[in-house]
Amino acid sequence: MSHLANDKQTFLNIAVLTVSDTRNEDTDTSGRYLAEALTEAGHTLGDKQIVIDDVYQIRAILSKWIADPSIDCVISTGGTGFTARDNTPEAVNVLFDKDIEGFGELFRHISYTEIGTSTVQSRALGGFANKTVIFCVPGSTNACKTAWKKILLEQLNSTHKPCNFVPHIGQK
User: What region holds the MoaB/Mog domain (predicted)?
Assistant: First the structure.
């Protein structure tokens, strides 16, 4: 699998979507964290939006980004729990061409060391749609930090060995 890493760093154009019925630009600490973290890593913030937790509004924004050849990756935050208003997995799953089962599994494994058994209430998920990689993480800022620092920072780094997601992204 070492052929899937590159010695030259490739930076991505990443969109951030906050799914929330209550957050706005002033209170969106999770989306803000992700936007700052990805730019600090050298990537470009391609777009950032906040959407209410509505299946069709989530799909509309994601579909636009999936079709946009300039967007390589989407990270969404929020809507992954079990309340009646948590609809991100239902909105996103149908858009995937391929699931990344290991992302949710690894996120919950790492999260277990931080929040214990409460991690089972996370429906974090990942997948590919039209060569755009999409990751959906819980809405708390700490969950976003866990996902970014312990999984996404490396997997969105083209030099990470033995493999990363970058060779599978783009060329729509």
Answer: 15-159
| Residue 131 DSSP one-character state | T
Instruction: For domain 13-168, give the CATH number.
Output: 3.40.980.10
Exposed, middle or buried: residue 116 (CB in 10 Å: 0-12, 13-18, 19+)?
exposed
Rounded CA-CA distance 146/104 in Å is 12
Residue 3: pLDDT band with limits 50, 70, 90: low
Q: Is 54 exposed, middle or buried (0-12, 13-18, 19+ CB in 10 A)?
A: middle
